[in-house]
Structure formats: C-alpha cells, structure tokens
Amino acid sequence: MSAELVHEELKTFVSDLKAAREAKGLSLKNVHEKTRISVTILDALEKGEFHLLPPDVYTRNFIRNYAEFLEVDSKPILDSFKDEKEYAAPPVLQKETMETLPSSERHHWKHLVLGVSVFFFIGVLVWLLVSYADKSILLKSSGSGERERTASSGEAPVGANSGIKDVATLPSSTKPLPETTNTFPPQAAEPDHPQASSSHEAAGPYTLIIEAKEKTWLRIRTDDEEATERTMKPGERLDLSARERFTLDIGNAAGVRVLFQDRLLENLGEEGQVVHLSLP
C-alpha cells in the first residue's frame, strides 16, 4: 500500500470519530469536559492534522481514550496511525564526522579548540583570584578601621574582657529599630468567623515543581490564564507558582516527579498513561 492510500485510510478512520461524536449529539467541548483531552487536540484528530499533535506515544493515548469514550474500536485507527508514521519516517542521513576532513584540517580544529579551552580556563582562574583579593582587602580595611575607632575612643574592644571571641559589632551609625505597637482594635483578636479566617490564610500562593524522568508531554494551566503545551526531556525541571490553582494534563504519568507545596505526589500512574490533575 502506498503512503497516499495509508494517509487517506487514516483520515477516513478519524472522520468516523467525528461522525460517532455527532451521532451522540456531543460537541468538542462536551468531550473535553468528560475526557480532559483539549479541544485543540480533538479537532486536529478529527481533521487528520497529525502535524499539530504531540509526539506519537501521547497521540496514541489520545486516540485510544477518545475512541473508548465514543464506544468505537480503536485498533484499526491505531494500526493505520502506525503505518502512517512508518511511511512518513524521514530517511536516515549519513553522519558526517571529523574523519571526512583532511588530516591537516583536523589538526587545525583540534588546536583551535584546545587554545580556546586554555584561554577560558585562564580567564576563570584570573577572575577567581581577583575576586578573592578584593574581598581580602575589603575585610582587612574594615577590620583596621574598627580597631582605629576603638583605640581613639579609649574603649576596650568588644569581647576583650568577656572571653567571647569574634563578636560582630554594629557600626556607630546604625539606628535602633523603632518600637511597634498593636494598632488593631481589641475585638479584632477574636474574629466572629474563625473558620472563614483560617481558610483565607491557607489560600495561595501555591508552588509546583515538575521534574522529567522520561520524555513527557504536558498541558499546564495556571489560575485562569490560557493553557500552554510543551514536551519535557529527561532532566528538565519546571518551577511554577499560582494564586489559586493549577490544572495539568500529563501524557506519561510515570515520566515525571510532581511536587506540590514541596510535597511529592506519588503513584500518578503507569508509563504512557495520560492523567489529569487539578491542584489544590
């Protein structure tokens, strides 16, 4: 079967999903509310616009979940999708290595790389030495100035007779902090609705950390902002904050570590499983 026939067959299969949805009287928004698959992905699936979809492993999960929701057999669609990707796979390009270059050019590049590395190392070393010297001079000058002020005033150095060493002293220009008084009325100490008060204090901001262990597709929505989609690679990390809530679609539940308010969320799901989270 040619690539054109495979592509047309796949478009026919995914159009059957649209027909099944319309037969049930459902809109794309209705399906999103039930499956948590974004409307953008559902629309691209039904139109066969696979270049707009995330990586293959996540797209297969979306096809399977959507077909099961509509009570349609997903196997023919997944098989056709697999054939489509095999036909569309780009040819393997021959790798060009340094060995294809003439010997004289290889030596030239090696010497250039070595020279740049040496200059970089020397620059870092000089910067560290200068920073250390400046810090030492600053500490010495501040210490000698303090001793001169103590000697001129005729006072014994702090800690000289008390047996306490290395006591930090405030400069003479430092002013004491002003005293504060409680300006709240007495009745504010005991609120009429303690439960409402505690829940207000417990509200945001919230922090969320996502660390990728495997290649994983994510769809993230913070508060009422527009959702964003991305694919994380192993070792990548996201640090997020929100005033009210996070909404997450994770394409590979076993591929990420999720920490909400510095607390690890365990057992999100299996490898390749799509999960949906709403925090808190």
Automatic annotation (TrEMBL):
> Which key words are in the record?
Membrane, Transmembrane, Transmembrane helix
Membrane-crossing residue ranges in chain numbering: 112-133
What region holds the Cytoskeleton protein RodZ-like C-terminal domain? Answer: 210-277
Any matching Pfam family: RodZ_C
- Bias regions of kind Polar residues — which residues? 170-185
Top-level taxon of origin: Bacteria
Question: Does the keyword Transmembrane helix belong to this entry?
Answer: yes
The UniProt entry, under CDD domains, shows: HTH_XRE
Q: Which InterPro entries does the annotation name? A: Bact_Cytoskel_RodZ, Cro/C1-type_HTH, Lambda_DNA-bd_dom_sf, RodZ-like_C
A GO MF annotation of the entry reads: DNA binding
Protein name, as recorded: Cytoskeleton protein RodZ-like C-terminal domain-containing protein
Organism annotation: Syntrophus gentianae
